[in-house]
């Protein structure tokens, strides 16, 4: 009974389906024939209207038929171009070296320390490579050759990454890969340098912590530059990571670069402030600003693309390692609630930036986009250093690991009691906000530094955490020479109480106005060319994006 009923039901459905298909088919046949005569069984008024519609819309319809949408017609990439594109996007991958050697058997022998192919690597969140050991997981971000003369270990490859252990005890080995050598040079890793203080919190097993691992190059190879490095537990292990060893040493160092931690401004459109900040730093003598990017507002991207084309900034996308969130809005929410995770993760871009550029610049400053190191006399950082270096040398005749600048707040609401300055565009936040708290924050608190690239080993936001040679010496730049102008709506949370006191006494400080002419003109013309004034007709090709 059951089966029979089911069978009849299916027959019904199938025949209905066939009838429906016939109806559709017939309708389609009709559609493909131009209907010039009104069909008697259709409402002729309706049909007439239809035809008129077609007539009136006729022009635009045929136009789109003939139009060709503008799509990217670049020729498809050759394999070499593709490899280059990968290299640019994943700078820590030794893809060129691998590509050159991929068909050669490389390793100690058939069963020991095989050269990891790009396809053997265990990636994590795009830019990290993983090592699982019997006691802890490593997510590795970058490897850099440190052959600075203050490095008493001698040429060393330093590997930056995160380990889910505090005080790791696991013994690991470094496999160095050299050009033209089929087997790796293997040594025990020398140390895991913790880039954090335990008193700052998050000091727990299982949470990924920032470390700089040292792999000292054996004596016999110390004059060679390794192409890549793998970190393994046992010497013979086939590695699941292979990092390009970053090393580029120009003939001479330039003076100043700035590093900025991962930008996390998905919803906050700081584009206009960013223009003022980049232009001001450029005027002060920052050769280049290296910014890392988590998530930013499209308008911020517009600004960054513009300055990247001009060679004034370089943007590196970055992610959080391990199981931390990387989905756009969620990541921001996470970072805003989990301050210690945020702070620990910031140390990766800071130290990566330092190690990538330590041979290119004498000084590297870590700044946020609301901070400016402002010399009180003169207009450049170079003049400032020329002035304070002799002062520092007089106290002690040696270069310091860092030169720190005292922090002072330029709070948003200090301005509004005083109104706007007419001759300065209102959108120029720093130029308008020339009232600051009278007192600086305490010496050594919330400072920012010029870091000496010959001396720093690991960096934190405010100070070096460890240094080469004789310790982390720092020269406090006097407030009569320079100040760290910090533009905020409010003081940092930890200073809430002092802040109330601070607010009661504000002073006018127009030091920034010495840049008025070039700054106003550069900022306004940049904004104009990028289409920020929709009423202004733009001339700049950059505005077409
Ligand atoms: C490969 O090298 C390792 C380490 O030197 C050695 O222990 C092992 O016996 C070698 N295996 C072969 C097959 O030669
Ligand atoms: C490394 O890989 C080779 C080839 O796949 C394999 O024979 C060897 O056992 C592996 N060595 C180790 C230590 O796992
Ligand atoms: C694993 O490493 C931790 C340190 O990070 C150490 O305290 C612990 O004793 C180690 N466990 C084993 C089994 O070695
Ligand atoms: C500001 O500095 C003066 C002089 O050093 C000091 O007496 C005063 O207590 C400070 N005010 C605050 C709020 O720290
Ligand atoms: C900035 O973003 C807003 C909101 O998405 C948009 O309307 C505006 O056109 C953008 N400005 C520029 C210059 O692209
Ligand atoms: C475009 O640029 C040219 C040359 O810089 C200038 O003479 C002209 O006035 C500009 N046009 C507009 C509409 O801004």
UniProtKB/TrEMBL annotation:
The chain crosses the membrane at residues 9-28. InterPro entries: Glyco_transf_92. One of its GO terms (molecular function) is glycosyltransferase activity. It holds the Pfam family Glyco_transf_92. It is an enzyme of class 2 (transferase). It is a single-pass membrane protein. Keywords: Glycosyltransferase, Membrane, Transferase, Transmembrane, Transmembrane helix. PANTHER family: GLYCOSYLTRANSFERASE FAMILY 92 PROTEIN. Belongs to the glycosyltransferase 92 family. This is Glycosyltransferase family 92 protein. It comes from Rhynchophorus ferrugineus (Red palm weevil).
């Amino acid at each position: 009974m059951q089966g029979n009923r089911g069978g009849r039901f299916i027959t019904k459905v199938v025949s209905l389906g066939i009838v429906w298909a016939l109806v559709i088919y017939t309708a389609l046949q009709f559609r493909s024939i131009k209907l010039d005569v009104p069909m008697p069984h259709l409402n002729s008024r309706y049909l007439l209207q239809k035809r008129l519609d077609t007539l009136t819309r006729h022009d635009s319809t045929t136009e789109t038929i003939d139009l060709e949408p503008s799509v990217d017609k670049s020729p498809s990439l050759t394999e070499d171009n593709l490899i280059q594109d990968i290299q640019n996007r994943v700078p820590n991958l030794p893809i060129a070296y691998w590509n050159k050697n991929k068909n050669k058997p490389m390793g100690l022998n058939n069963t020991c320390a095989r050269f990891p192919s790009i396809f053997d690597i265990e990636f994590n969140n795009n830019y990290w490579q993983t090592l699982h050991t019997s006691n802890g997981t490593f997510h590795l971000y970058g490897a850099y050759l440190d052959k600075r003369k203050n490095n008493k270990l001698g040429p060393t490859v330093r590997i930056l990454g995160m380990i889910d252990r505090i005080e790791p005890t696991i013994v690991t080995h470094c496999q160095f890969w050299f050009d033209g050598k089929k087997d790796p040079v293997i040594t025990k890793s020398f140390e895991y340098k913790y880039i954090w203080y335990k008193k700052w919190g998050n000091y727990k097993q299982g949470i990924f912590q920032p470390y700089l691992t040292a792999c000292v190059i054996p004596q016999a190879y110390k004059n060679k530059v390794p192409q890549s490095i793998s970190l393994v537990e046992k010497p013979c292990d086939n590695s699941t990571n292979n990092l390009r060893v970053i090393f580029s040493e120009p003939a001479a160092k330039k003076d100043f670069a700035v590093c900025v931690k991962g930008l996390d401004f998905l919803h906050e459109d700081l584009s206009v402030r960013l223009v003022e900040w980049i232009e001001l730093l450029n005027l002060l003598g920052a050769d280049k600003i290296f910014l890392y990017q988590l998530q930013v507002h499209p308008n911020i991207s517009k600004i960054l693309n513009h300055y990247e084309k001009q060679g004034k900034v370089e943007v590196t996308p970055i992610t959080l390692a391990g199981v931390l969130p990387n989905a756009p809005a969620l990541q921001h929410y996470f970072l805003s609630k989990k301050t210690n995770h945020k702070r620990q993760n910031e140390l990766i871009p800071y130290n990566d930036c330092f190690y990538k550029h330590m041979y290119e610049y004498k000084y590297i400053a870590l700044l946020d986009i609301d901070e400016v190191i402002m010399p009180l006399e003169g207009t450049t950082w170079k003049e400032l250093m020329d002035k304070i270096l002799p002062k520092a040398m007089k106290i002690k005749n040696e270069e310091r690991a860092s030169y720190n600048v005292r922090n002072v707040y330029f709070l948003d609401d200090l301005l509004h009691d005083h109104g706007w300055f007419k001759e300065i565009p209102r959108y120029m936040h720093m130029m308008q906000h020339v009232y600051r708290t009278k007192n600086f924050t305490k010496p050594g608190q919330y400072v920012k530094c010029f870091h000496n690239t010959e001396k720093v080993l690991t960096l934190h936001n405010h100070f070096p955490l460890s240094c080469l040679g004789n310790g982390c010496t720092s020269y406090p730049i006097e407030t009569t020479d320079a100040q760290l102008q910090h533009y905020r709506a409010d003081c940092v949370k930890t200073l809430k109480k002092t802040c109330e006191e601070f607010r009661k006494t504000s002073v006018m400080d127009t030091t920034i106005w010495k840049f008025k002419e070039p700054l106003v003109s550069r900022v306004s013309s940049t904004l104009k060319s990028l289409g920020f004034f929709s009423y202004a007709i733009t001339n700049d090709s950059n505005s077409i994006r």
